[in-house]
Hints:
Elements: H1 2-31, H2 44-54, H3 58-62, H4 69-102, H5 120-159, E1 168-172, E2 189-193
Antiparallel strand pairs: 1-2
Helix pairs in contact: 2-5, 4-5
Amino acid sequence: xxxxxxxxxxxxxxxxxxxxxxxxxxxxxxxxxxxxxxxxxxxxxxxxxxxxxxxxxxxxxxxxxxxxxxxxxxxxxxxxxxxxxxxxxxxxxxxxxxxxxxxxxxxxxxxxxxxxxxxxxxxxxxxxxxxxxxxxxxxxxxxxxxxxxxxxxxxxxxxxxxxxxxxxxxxxxxxxxxxxxxxxxxxxxxxxxx
Length: 194
């Protein structure tokens, strides 16, 4: 019962706030001309996605939302590319040592007296781990690239969304009109006005 009370109280507060807010809008609209609504451009999301596909971050620049997104995009891609290159170089290093050891040659992990710093099984294990890390870094780079394209397209859609004060939510409580049933009933109606 307490939950129901809090839910009703929440909607009454929203309704009261919406009424106060709508009176302000009416007063302001009487004093000054309303700004024109933004025209919907159906090609804007596809342009933003295209620009992002050509150059990462260009869609965010097209949307004028680049001040915090570009550092994340380029920082994430640069980090994952750095780890890709580093893991690839280390993989090649261990792979070369493993091949030399398999051929019976001196490798960089074997001392001059024949003592092995890393065993053959250790070289194989390092190769597997470094290959997984390299592939994960490549996957992360591709994922960041795709996500920034999707983000540019979605942002271009949402920029054009009408968020003016003409939109409102009006919760209303309607009493039951059933004469035969005297038990209290609770209902909720949401009314959207555009």
